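Re-run with default settings, no changes from the original entry. Doing this only to confirm the output is reproducible before filing.
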Amino acid sequence: MNIKIVADYETLSREAAAIVASKIAAGPKTVLALPTGNTPIGMYKQLVRLYREGKVDLSRVWVFALDEYARVPASDQHSFSYFLRQHLIDPAGLGPRFDHLRGEAACFETECRRYEQAIAARGGLDLAVLGLGVNGHIAFNEPGTSFDSRTHVVDLAASTREANASYFPDGFKIPAQGLTMGIGTILAAKEILLLASGKSKAAIMAHIMAAEPAPAIPASALKTHPRTTWLLDQEAAAGC
């Protein structure tokens, strides 16, 4: 595994943005899968800065969101689509080349099939950037998810709902379900970049590093991928 440990969150954010920018420089039509959550916000700020300074060309990049809350429309400020538009898509002019799971879809199974077909139509994912849940989930793939799963509907674990509720001081009630790229969808990406920051991720990172790949720890699936970079700050790497 390619494990990079950096000093702190700011350094992690700059390094993550540099990795993404380098990938785009090597392939201007790069297809990305991107996450939400606190961890990637710094990376998005750095990418927007690089874009505004003319140091990265995003004019042919295509972005897919990793996941979405079920029954939350894209226009809702609590949706993951809204989050990505706020932090990266709109500031970097990526709107016409951004696809996301529709939480308001009439039929979730149909929407999941549409998403898989849309990814395939773009030639598959070149780079999947992931955050890490405290229970080891990646995207919305909770413990027990099959490693060959494709985009699907998922029942969200209580720990996931509790962690995500902290992002919304207005008291937004986290839905019980989500839509997500499957682990198999993510593993089909040519490259994967996982970001982990802070003390809250130290225990699960130590567990992942020590364990054999198994569905009980979804992120352990990444150990089977030949081109995965684990980018950690010192706090997240403390137990490794």
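The mean pLDDT is 97. The helical segments are 9-26, 41-52, 80-89, 108-121, 158-165, 183-187, 202-210.
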